[in-house]
Amino acid sequence: MPKLLLIRNATMTATLAFAISAFAQPIVYPSKGQSLEQQRKDDAECYSWAKQNTGIDPAVVASTQPAQQTGPATGGGERARGAVRGAVGGAVIGGIADDDAGKGAGVGAVLGVMAGGRRARQNQDAQNQQAQADHQYKIDVFYRAYGACLESHGYTVK
């Protein structure tokens, strides 16, 4: 049982580390000796400037994770197209192999539906990955602008 707990904790730690790194603000160092009060003023000014110039509010973007498509992958027509292709191919093969095009079409249609379902799941996964990448891109754009502003005010940004 301790081994299971260790694996679970390692998984949770890795997940948390990814989540933090995905949306972490850049590290800002006052390289010209700016006071804490000046840092706060510059930070607020640059945050506002970056938000205005990019049209991105990281607080809103971070709180609105893209909806992941889950459940059966339907709606793209992949299964129906697979069934048709499978039925046609099965009818041809069935007609040639044992003079039973109907049986071949049935088998081909079933296999085609299964292949279409696989394609539908692959398409769904690709859409989910693209939505996550778009989400991360918005955060990155904002922080690049924010960092550029802070650097212009004499801060080192990493």
Description:
By secondary structure, the protein is mainly alpha-helical. The chain has helices spanning 2-22, 36-54, 58-63, 78-98, 101-152; strands spanning 28-29, 156-157. Strands 1-2 form a two-stranded antiparallel ribbon. It is rod-shaped, with a radius of gyration of 27 Å. Mean pLDDT is 73; it is low at 3-22.
Number of domains: 1
| Strand elements, count | 2
User: Total number of helical segments?
Assistant: 5
Which structural class fits the helix and strand makeup?
mainly alpha
Radius of gyration: 27 Å
Reading the helices and strands in chain order gives HEHHHHE
The averaged pLDDT comes out at 73
Quaternary form: single chain
Outline, from the CA principal axes? rod-shaped
Distance between the termini: 41 Å
Q: Strand portion, in percent?
A: under 5%
